[in-house]
Amino acid sequence: MDKINFDPSEEGGFELARAIVLQRLKEDRNWSQYDHSGTGFDRYVEYVGDPVAGRRRLCFLAQDILWELMIQGVIAPGLNINNPNLPFFHITEYGGKVISAGKYLPHDPTGYLDRFRGEVINPDPVVMSYLSESLECFSRGNLVASVVMLGIASERMFLLLCNALLDSLSDPKEKAEFGKTLDRNAIKPKMGWVLDKIQSLQRDSPRLLPDNVNIMLVTIFDFIRCQRNDLGHPQDSPPNVTLEDAYVNLRVFPSYCGMANQVINYLQTNKV
Q1: Running DSSP on this structure, what letter comes out for residue 217?
Q2: How far apart are the first and last CA of the chain?
Q3: How many CB atoms lie within 10 A of CB 182?
């Protein structure tokens, strides 16, 4: 495991400290009490400069992060019936899913966005803006707002794909037909048109796009869009989004964007 460089003299350091805390929670299943000495972090950290100052700074930030994770439901006070209170803590059932998950943890928004920028080539700035807002809302427990922001990011990604498809169409009649469809406000006809076109492209041999492209671009988009529409318009009853709902949506979104980007890149260099 590569250690994380931590420089106590640098301003902030909170995001690095969060990554260190999450890494320790993931790998050290015996960690169940606040670490006042900071020595328990040593296997995960490469201190830059004075290690004593580094441990002291990391311990201070780790306390804030543990409280944040407690508010988010990843950990909870107490270890067992004999130690039911702080400074002991335990990973919750939901937290176990978070800690055991791979990449793209919404509870680590900086790491999430850094990985997104690295894997989705030249991400659209509007998509990034709404995605960042969704992660910020998630971190603060504003789950309805998080899902709505992510739905807008998803819809923006789909419209970028639609524009790339329109530019790529070689048949003037087909292009005019799809152009009229895009001018309408309704999303569903646009989705149907794109799905039909992609399915026709996939009937060619060899297939031009990955086998699961329809599922990734339409099913996942529709899943997120429906939740956004249900939450973004007045309803007869108050909106309800669970923590796991918002968490799953944010975990799925990068795969959807990656596939959409792959299709857009193909359409920008090929006529269909």
Answers
A1: I
A2: 46
A3: 14
Domain boundaries, the chain: 4-100, 109-269
Residue 87 phi, psi (nearest 5): -85, 5
DSSP β-ladder status, 75-77 and 89-91:
antiparallel
Beta bridge partners of 47: 6
Which helix (H) or strand (E) segment holds residue 75: the answer is strand 75-77
- How many other CB atoms are found less than 10 A from the CB of residue 172? 8
Return d(Cα 272, Cα 189) in angstroms, integer.
Answer: 20
Residue type, 41: F
For residue 237, pLDDT beyond 90: no
Q: What is the dihedral of CA 25, 31, 36, 38, to 10 degrees?
A: -60
Q: Is the pLDDT of residue 8 over 90?
A: no
Amino acid letter, 37: S
For residues 136-147, one letter each, b for 16 or more C-beta atoms within 10 angstroms of the residue's C-beta and e for the rest, the string is ebbbeebbbbbb
**pTM attached to this predicted model:** 0.86
Would you tell me which CATH number, out of the four given (1.10.260, 2.60.450, 1.25.40, 1.10.10), belongs to the domain 4-100?
1.10.10
Q: How long, in residues, is the chain?
A: 272
Tokens representing 237? 């009853």
And the tokens for 160?
């970028």
